[in-house]
Amino acid sequence: MRVRLSCISMALCLCACAHDPAQLQNASLRESEPITRPHDETPQWWFGEGARTAAALRGAHAGQARNIILFLGDGMSITTITAARIFEGQRRGSPGEENRLAFEAFPYTALSRTYAVDAQTADSASTMSAIMTGIKTRYDTVSLTQDARPGDCASTRGHAAATLLEIAESSGLATGVVTTTRITDATPAASYAHSADDNWEADADMPVEARDAECVDIARQLIEFSAGDGIDVAFGGGRSRFLPTDASDPEYPDLRGKRLDGRNLIAEFEARKGSRFVWNAQQFNALDPSKPKQVMGLFEPENLHYIEDGKQDAAGAPSLAQMTTKAIALLSRHSAGYVLVVEGGRIDHAHHSGNAYRALDETIGLSDAVRAAVAATRADETLILATADHSHTLSISGASVRGNPILGLARSRDREGNAAEQASEDAAGRPFTTLNYANGPGYLSSSDAQAAGPKHFPHVPRKYSDEAVTRPNLALVDTAHPDYLQESIFPMRRETHSGEDVAVFARGPGAEAVHGSLEQNVLFHLMLQANPRMRAHLCRATPCEGASIPVQRPRIEDLTVDP
User: Fold this and answer.
1) Which residue of the set 32, 124, 143, 367 is catalytic?
2) Looking at 449, 474, 495, which one is the last position of a domain?
3) What order of strands is seen across the sheet that includes strand 502-507?
4) What is the percent of the chain where pLDDT is above 70?
């Protein structure tokens, strides 16, 4: 009887699927199967499977997105989102748990699997490369196929993977990259560059053999970006990678550039007709979106300051929200549409420092940028995705009462549901915080940089002592201070990434496809297929399948510019 019922149920299910218009439309597209043979994966396999998975999801290729904006919170784990949501709400005077960050109001969500082809817990280079190229790649490499070997310049020949920005430019779309890190850092670099090592930001960062083999550093690749008419807007930090060693920084005259080749890439950019370079808040604010053809703004020699530390910047720098708004204004001049990548990159840096305050503060800054983008665009023509590249080891634990300060000590409830008078205690009778890290520089033993006990930002130890340390009485410590480092279970110079899934939030044309559990490289295909212009362009360059679905991984040389 049980077998008969199962058969009947299966028959009913098949019948229903046969009459589903979405299923009929994608009849030629097979559903992606779980990956069972990693050694049989190839770049083409990743690309084809990703394309077919995206096409099978309702809404992807049916979208008519004129513009695409990808927001990337570097290291923005689900725990980070939850804690930042509460933190922002508590700043506004509410309990916090009921608050929503801007992207949490988007109607469609999914989970994204972040592993690389050779790593269970991945890095920013490989994860962003997956999002930008439609294939999974190797750890430490930037938008190269898995056939290239990390750190091996010679192995990169012929293995560059076309990025979404290269496809967009060759399709006649405008493009932009905005970040709070160096513009040459791994995450933004993956949108426009190809490198065997994500640290090769300037030629000085490359080994002699790589320079001799004529591999090109990431900063040069930004300036020499050859697809279309080049990237139209680039905002971030990292001036030092664009200046030669004999050139002074415009803001800090004692600092010199890091280029060994003698080239001043900023001057080369400025020499182009219609190009404009800015490096401070005043110049940025004076930008007229109707005038320059291309704009590059580099507001620090290295990363932009944390929001908390912005007062240290005498020249001033725009916020991520301000850069996003300006980028949209500049790109909106282009009638064909645009693709914009926006990174809140210092979330990741704060987590590596074991500093939850700055990580949450930067996450709120990313939320502000998303809110600004929503205000500046139309939901019927702009697809907006907000996600992360990878996770971190931050945890929320204890049994705290609702509204308990997220950066404070864990505090349980009394019988009436009110906060207990005393903070919760561990088995040794010591209070503990709600937020903690699995590893990192917040470990309590002494290091060569700070004494035993609670640690404060910045803490960059080279080694720790191995003495046994009793947990301190945190009731005597201001754990909500911006410089307090949450305790970690075991010591590390830098806190590490973690390997769990990250969240994806979406709104706009094609957003309906964002649901379920997705391989990270599928996000590329969702964005590509939602834009008719890019999809049609690839179908002219490479064979397509079914309802004009690009399933053949394009070579960069195939991406001739559409008239």
Assistant:
1) 124
2) 495
3) 275-278, 294-298, 233-237, 174-182, 338-344, 67-73, 382-388, 502-507, 108-113, 517-519
4) 93
